Amino acid sequence: SAKLGDIRPRLAPLTPTAVEQLALDALVRPKRVDRITDLIGNTPLVRLHHIERDCPGVELWAKCEFANPAGSVKDRPALRMMQDALSRGVLAGKRLIDSTSGNTGIAYSMVGAALGVPVTLVMPENVSEPRKQVTSAYGTELIYSDPMEGSDGAIVLARELVAKHPDRYYYPNQYANPSNPLAHYHGTGVEIWKQTQGRVTHFVTGIGTSGTVMGTSRRLRELGEAVRRPVKCIAMQPDDGMHGLEGLKHLPSSLVPGIYDPSVIDDTIWMPTDEGWDMADRLAEREGLFVGHSSGANVAAALRVGRELAEAGQSGVVVTVLCDRGDRYFVPLQWEKHYVW
Ligand code: PMP
């Protein structure tokens, strides 16, 4: 008989049965990848149980783009734009240049470091220290533009540099680059369809370059039409002219992104910035999701859609996007008012 403390005779053999192994395979899938860029995409979809209480009968779900390795929805397009440029040979011997210190700049920096592509970012000298630190940590070269000229000054300087040294710089222009929406067409859209088992009825998200809403909506529409269950796709835009693209309704057509195609969108929701901030607070406090204000605005827009359905006595599965984490905005940014998401 075994003495107390001697557990060896009681141990079952450590090899799981075939059935146990199947169960383990389904439940526990630790990832192992060849390089960090393989961790881009395939992000979780999380249900918003607390927010959902305001639209009974309607499900609210959010795509966790903050789970990408450089922390935002821009990892996907950054990877695809860089891979596309590499495969076309237009990046050979050049540096990728852009005029952003935001999520796109951080994503270019991470992908560039992983793929061995040198990156240069032009940003106003007064951007926050963390933005300078996180981009330069990846080895990115920073060129500062006149702080008095804001983000426009950075755009102008980047374009001047490209025009002056076309042999040194490659400018991907995410506003007109088809690889930007394609990253969401081949990634985000398909993933949402699979994660909801084709039950998604509405997709709502904000517009910066419009890459997310264009690519994801286009794919969800196609998948929905194929099984005759149309998915409604709705764009969210800030209503105060201070964020994002200052509202496409206020813009001269020359400033509308080249990738923007209004036929993909069923509707636009205009969202006051305050409502986005308030929802971001609620998401952190009630859902445990500490996300940025654009994510807050997205969920506020999704809830508006959900409420309308609930009030009409309809059900629905509304999906939106959590673009990045809240800690990316700890430091008040002086140039925030001119900042394009
Ligand atoms: N929210 C945040 C925080 C972003 O950085 C971006 C991308 N610039 C967006 C929303 C909008 O995404 P898109 O450019 O795909 O329209």
TrEMBL record:
Molecular-function GO term, any one: transferase activity, transferring alkyl or aryl (other than methyl) groups
Keyword Transport part of the UniProt annotation: no
Domain Tryptophan synthase beta chain-like PALP stretches: 36-324
Top-level division of the source organism's lineage: Bacteria
Keywords: Pyridoxal phosphate
UniProt GO BP: cysteine biosynthetic process from serine
Names of the cofactor(s): pyridoxal 5'-phosphate
Pfam families linked: PALP
Protein name, UniProt field: Cysteine synthase
Natural source organism: Plesiocystis pacifica SIR-1
Upper taxonomic lineage: Bacteria, Pseudomonadati, Myxococcota, Polyangia, Nannocystales
